[in-house]
Amino acid sequence: MAIPVFRNDTFYRLAARLRYRKTGEGIVFWYDLWRADPTFDDAFTQAVARVAAGTELPVLYGKPE
Known about the structure:
The chain is α+β, with helices and mostly antiparallel strands. Helix content is 31%, strand content 34%. The protein has 1 helix and 4 strands; from the N terminus they run E-E-E-E-H.
């Protein structure tokens, strides 16, 4: 499947695994994205680079408290 990580951004190809489980109410379907973390990291790095180039300001990264 090809989806953009951020809105109006480039499309990334991700493998999606269709899963199912039989329950008392019927069959439940869902999907799992395979290796979505590296894809998000790459999209985030590219977005930060575009912001830094477009604003010509330093990019600040925060840390959780």
